[in-house]
Design goal:
The protein has 145 residues and is of the alpha/beta class. The protein has a single domain, classed as Nucleotidyltransferase, domain 5 (2-Layer Sandwich), CATH 3.30.420. The protein contains 5 helices and 5 strands; from the N terminus they run βββαβαααβα. The chain has a 5-stranded mixed β-sheet with strand order 3-2-1-4-5. The protein is globular, with a radius of gyration of 15 Å.
Length: 145
């Protein structure tokens, strides 16, 4: 299987409010940036959307090194929280409804296709790819102001 590196980030001006997401996919010498946004959303929805959009571009099963500054995304996948919410009908262990079941459901489908390796990166620090994703996401969110 090919090994692909993906960096993602989401941004929101107000929460909820106008939001954007950015992603960078890298395979060998190839690099692709993508981004998008919504007029009324949340930061977590944008974080999830960035990962979904990036994984959706892969044309075959891949090993994916996924880098995100979102503990919500990384822990939701790596610690199995989202699978647990899904098993319980999108209810968290505290009996409250899980947020964003539509996006989590799609992300879990994509997780079954690919072999994901999760990496948390500190946001707004020294990682050039995370910082670039943040720039892309913020620029998208500003289109709705």
């Amino acid at each position: 299987m090919k090994t692909v590196t993906i960096y993602t980030d989401g941004a929101c001006s107000g929460n909820p409010g106008p939001g954007g997401w950015g992603a960078i996919l890298m395979y060998g010498a190839h690099k692709r940036e993508l981004s998008g946004g919504e007029p009324d959303t949340t930061n977590n929805r944008m974080e999830l959307t960035a990962v979904i959009q990036a994984l959706s571009l892969l044309k075959e099963p891949c090993v994916v090194d996924l880098w995100s500054d979102s503990k919500y995304v990384i822990d939701g996948l790596e610690k199995g929280w989202a699978r647990g919410w899904q098993r319980r009908g999108w209810v968290k262990s505290d009996k409250k409804p899980a947020l964003n079941p539509d996006l989590w459901g799609r992300l879990l489908e994509l997780e079954e296709i690919h072999t994901l390796r999760y990496h948390w990166v500190k946001g707004h620090a020294e990682n050039e790819y995370n910082n670039r994703c943040d720039q892309l996401a913020v620029a998208e969110s500003q289109k709705y102001k």
